[in-house]
Amino acid sequence: MITVKFTYENKEIKKISVSGHSLYNKEGLDIVCSSVSTAVIYSIRLLEANNEKFSYTEDKEKPEITILVKESSSHTKIVLDNLKVLLEDLSKDYPKNIKIKEALK
Predict the structure, then answer these.
(1) Which residue ranges form the domains of the chain, and what is each CATH number?
(2) 66 — phi, psi (to 5°)?
(3) What percent of the chain has pLDDT over 90?
């Protein structure tokens, strides 16, 4: 199962951790894993294109990717809120494959 954890500070997303495998299908044919990966990487590229203050780490062996917001802006908020909606929608469609968690910092 893919686990997505959103961590908030002052009602804004400050950290997103995505880890695990969806196990929907075998590697290379897993539409759930592909959808999550695409949404996360696309969001990172949008933040990079706008020179937002954030960092991310990726560990392909676990697998895990973490996005850490260093300084929030309206653009950062839009991108990360949109990512959250996309992942929540996927978790509704594939509840056995994606779990969403939330925490306060």
Answers:
(1) 2-104 (3.30.70.1490)
(2) -130, 130
(3) 94
Structure tokens at 82: 């949109």
Of the candidates 75, 69, 51, the residue with the CA atom closest to the CA atom of residue 105: 69
Q: What is the pLDDT of residues 27-43, one digit of tens each?
A: 889 999 999 999 999 99
Strand order in the sheet with 53-59: 53-59, 64-71, 12-19, 2-9, 98-104
Sequence-separated (6 or more) residues with CB below 8 Å from residue 6? 13, 15, 16, 84, 100, 101, 102, 103
Q: For 52, list phi and psi in degrees, rounded to 5.
A: -70, 155
Q: Could you read off the pLDDT of 22-31 as tens digits, one per residue?
A: 999 998 899 9
Arithmetic mean of pLDDT, 32-57? 96
